[in-house]
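Researcher: Let's do a round of design. I'm pasting the structure tokens now; please hold your answer until I've finished.
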């Protein structure tokens, strides 16, 4: 005969009580077990699908589409502007400005053109957008080029809040084109609006750089640049500007590249070079004697300037090599900020044998610098990404990598296994990071892409 050490083991009521207590204990253990908490650098799963969004404009056959700039408006809406398609003229599928509007959670905003997407052509020709800014009253302004890279003109389009073209701009159709170099190839890379509501544009005019000022209706401001509304300057080989902003003094700061170095330029309000800035108005920065190409610019709190791009490329551009993401921080007088990495310059090599590039830059409310671009690309500066992933890197204000972000300061985003890139960045009020660019899938090819990372 067997016996039990538990005096009530054969009583059903006791067994039920034990089972209930055991279930309660298990429930408490599960409830108290720590859950995975989103950390800086993780994708924000409340944005889009798992933190990511891709948008196809629906051309048939599918055309490559890519976002070149990102705008986060004061109310949290997101605009991405870029290129819709890459077909040649005469096919009926010419590429055009592509603009998409999203809500703060990554959904297409159907209040904008019915489906959140607008394509704007400038005739039977190649057109693409490179910059998007707010233009007041819920309107946006988009700039780029039309006519193809070698024979292009400047192109501007202004949109109402509902996505329709603003007919008060550009003589009735919402569009403006400007030929600065007589057909040698002009393009807008950067836009901003002055405190007086005028439009500033910067980019390339033939083999030189230009800045231009337009009135709010799209006409050139003849009170600027000697009476024609623009200024072209030869800063050297391969020079172009990609950003132009008005300062509180009424002067203007511009950023770009020249002679394979980073370029920072300050202008007087009339478009002349400000010789009180570095003696001639011009500052160039070389990293290590190789080719350096800048893409992104922002102002930091306190009046410092930050430029980011791709550095240490072998000459000539186009040969694969140990290209790195590079960042420079300047004091407001144009001198290098030696509090940033000791010499004002930082390089980050994510993939030793492949190209890593910064394409845009922002500074958060804590003074940390965040760059967006691409990592692990085998081809240098292709028109569209051929491999690699979108890249986000965050630095402390002294130039060191922020190890509180993704463990080592570096995060990559793979959208669907294909080639991806980030070309624009925006920060939310809580320092979360939104990037925009292109993502490649096996079904629709290269599409607009957005991702949001925890800050």
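Researcher: That's everything. Go ahead.
Model: Designed sequence:
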């Amino acid at each position: 005969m067997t016996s039990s050490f538990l005096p009530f083991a054969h009583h059903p009521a006791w067994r039920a009580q034990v089972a209930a207590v055991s279930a309660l204990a298990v429930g408490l253990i599960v409830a108290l077990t720590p859950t995975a908490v989103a950390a800086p650098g993780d994708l924000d799963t409340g944005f889009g699908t798992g933190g990511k969004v891709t948008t196809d404009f629906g051309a048939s056959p599918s055309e490559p589409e890519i976002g070149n700039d990102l705008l986060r408006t004061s109310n949290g809406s997101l605009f991405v502007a870029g290129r819709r398609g890459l077909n040649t003229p005469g096919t009926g599928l010419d590429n055009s400005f592509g603009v998409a509007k999203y809500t703060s959670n990554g959904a297409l905003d159907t209040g904008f053109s019915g489906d959140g997407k607008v394509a704007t052509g400038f005739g039977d020709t190649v057109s693409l957008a490179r910059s998007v800014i707010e233009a007041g009253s819920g309107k946006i302004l988009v700039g780029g080029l039309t006519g193809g890279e070698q024979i292009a003109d400047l192109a501007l389009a202004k949109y109402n809040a509902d996505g329709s073209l603003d007919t008060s701009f550009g003589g009735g159709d919402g569009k403006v084109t400007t030929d600065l170099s007589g057909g040698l190839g002009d393009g807008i890379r950067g836009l901003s609006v002055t405190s007086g509501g005028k439009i500033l544009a910067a980019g390339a005019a033939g083999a030189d750089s230009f800045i231009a000022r337009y009135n709010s209706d799209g006409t050139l401001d003849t009170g600027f640049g000697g009476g024609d509304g623009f200024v072209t300057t030869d800063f050297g080989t391969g020079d172009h500007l990609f950003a132009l902003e008005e300062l509180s003094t009424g002067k203007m700061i511009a950023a770009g590249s020249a002679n394979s170095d980073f370029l920072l330029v300050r202008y007087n309000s009339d478009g002349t070079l400000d010789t009180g800035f570095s003696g001639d108005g011009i500052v160039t920065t070389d990293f290590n004697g190789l080719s350096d190409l800048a893409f992104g610019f922002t102002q930091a709190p306190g009046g410092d300037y930050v430029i980011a791009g791709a550095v240490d490329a072998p000459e000539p551009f186009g040969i694969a090599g140990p290209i790195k993401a590079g960042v420079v921080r300047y004091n407001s007088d144009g001198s290098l900020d030696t509090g940033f990495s000791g010499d004002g310059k930082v390089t980050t090599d994510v993939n030793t044998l492949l190209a890593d590039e910064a394409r845009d830059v922002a500074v958060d409310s804590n003074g940390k610098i965040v760059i967006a671009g691409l990592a692990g690309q085998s081809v240098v500066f292709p028109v569209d990404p051929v491999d690699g992933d979108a890249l986000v890197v965050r630095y402390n204000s002294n130039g060191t990598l922020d190890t509180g972000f993704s463990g080592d300061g570096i995060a990559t985003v793979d959208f669907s296994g294909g080639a991806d890139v980030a070309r624009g960045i925006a920060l939310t009020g809580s320092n979360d990071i939104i990037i925009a660019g292109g993502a490649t899938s096996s079904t629709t090819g290269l599409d607009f892409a957005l991702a949001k990372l925890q800050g």
